[in-house]
Amino acid sequence: MQNGNSISSKAGLKKYILKKNLKRDFPASIVVFLVALPLCLGIALASGAPLFAGLITGIIGGIVVASFSGSQLSVSGPAAGLTVIVLGAIAHLGSYQVFLLAVMLAGLMQIVLGLIKAGTIGNYFPSSVIEGMLAAIGLILILKQLPHALGVDKDFLDESLSSGSMFNIVGQALKMLNPAAMIITVLSIAILIFWPKFKKLSAVPAPLLVVILGIGMTLFFQQTGFALRAEQMVNIPVVRGWGEFSNLFTMPDFSAITNKEVWIVALTIAVVASLETLLSIEAVDKIDPVKRVSPTNRELIAQGIGNMTSGMFGGLPMTSVIVRSSANVNAGGKTKMSAILHGCWLLLSFLFIPGLINMIPLACLAAILLVTGYKLTRISLFKHMYHKGWDQFIPFVITVVAVLLTDLLKGVAIGMLLSVFYLLRTNMRNPFFYKIHEEGNKKNLRIKLSEEVSFLNKAAIQVVLTKIPQETNVIIDGSNSRYIHPDVLETIYNFKHNAYTKGIIVTLVEIKEHYIVPKITDKIIEDIHKI
């Protein structure tokens, strides 16, 4: 009987906690939905994909990914960081259906990464390269959204850039500017910048106000003769039945499975999406009031399932997104239920208010993405990286330039190579330290080796040993070393063997003839926990 009461009390406690959390998760989910709706549409627009694909991705990111994720506050959906890859991949592969196959394969790769415990992969990418990648994405976002922000016809730009002088293009573009779109853009940017500064009003998300403003301004300009053109408005399908709804979904083209380019795009998406997700998860855990730690390997599996589902139904690749996740935290979300509910609201809005969504001008979405792009490439970021030193600033800037001039994957690869160069340069300069003191006519030199001495240190150590003057007592101290590379050991023992010819006496302190690469064992982990 007592056991029954215990079970009953546990069930009651669980129900109470769920109900208590739902009181916070429900309103938080509405805030996240209001932030996510314009972002889903805007990112689809920037990616050159159907706007419906952005909504589908947000819905799957909310309902599917959150259900499998171990993070309680992370919100997934289409990400600004992938727009450049998506835009280029669709054009390169020549078909949206083939691109969807790449998205599915990317999801499969993420699941494999999660299963092989690759959740720590983000730790091996230097922050300077990641920051450079995001800054370059921000610049590309700004450049891509300017036509929509200014109301310039995108088809006109594409045709003009292929022929004609730059002066003629600029002159014609100025004539094509749409005053209504420009006014909406300027007012939207002003709201996005200044509205969050009013703390008492900031509970209402700025993107929601931008959307409301855009709809209101659209109706106003229709009455004044400055109406926006149809191609300057959001255009998602209006569903009038199950048949029309089911026809909206686009299936992947599985016949392209042997196409090498598809696999390259899939690998690019998998790597970049995983990195952005892991960085976002780390950031969300830092702002979590409860300070919960999200399982990164499980998150990769959840993202993989989400991307496979998104690719199957015609959506875009997704990641955990810091903008929506931080909105969730600030709105008081407690569990993953807020993310799941926000996906439900996206689905219901598409089914029941598509007409209202189609009244949103593209200039609104462009303004949101312009501000998002600036946050990724803000001037203060360049100053911050500069103050961190040349070994951080140069890889950062080179990554930005390389991404702009090539593509995302090549740009990051170039940044990584430069970071490795600086890493090797630093490692070579810090292999050991030494002290010299004199006793009578005899010099005494102590060379104390560092904790890890790799083959990269061989050249620097060899230079120092060859420059030791005659008639010197040399002590080579390895008491602090956990590992010394065999090449360095060979150099030390050869020096000791030949030193007598110069009258040099060499004493080796705690230097073994062989070292085993240290491994992190359970014993070490237990010792760390004890500390």
Helices and strands, with pairings:
Blueprint: H1 2-46, H2 51-68, E1 76-78, H3 83-93, H4 96-115, H5 127-150, H6 154-162, H7 166-176, H8 179-194, H9 206-224, H10 242-247, H11 260-287, H12 296-313, E2 318-320, H13 322-330, H14 337-352, H15 354-357, H16 362-376, H17 379-387, H18 390-405, H19 408-429, E3 432-439, E4 442-449, E5 452-453, H20 458-466, E6 472-477, E7 483-484, H21 486-498, E8 505-509, H22 522-530
Parallel strand pairs: 4-6, 5-7, 6-8
Antiparallel strand pairs: 1-2, 3-4
Helix pairs in contact: 1-2, 1-9, 1-13, 1-14, 1-16, 2-12, 2-14, 3-11, 4-11, 4-12, 5-16, 5-18, 5-19, 8-9, 8-16, 9-16, 11-12, 11-13, 17-18, 18-19, 20-21
Your description of this structure?
- The chain is of the alpha/beta class and 531 residues long.
- It folds into two domains: 379 residues, no CATH class; 78 residues, STAS domain (Transcription Regulator spoIIAA), CATH 3.30.750.
- 65% of the residues lie in helices and 7% in strands.
- The protein contains 22 helices and eight strands.
- The strands form three sheets. Strands 3-4-6-8 form a four-stranded mixed beta sheet, with helices on one face. Strands 1-2 form a two-stranded antiparallel ribbon.
- α1 packs across α14, α1 crosses α16 and α3 runs antiparallel to α11.
- The radius of gyration is 29 Å and the shape is elongated.
- The two termini are 44 Å apart.
- About 2% of the residues have low confidence.
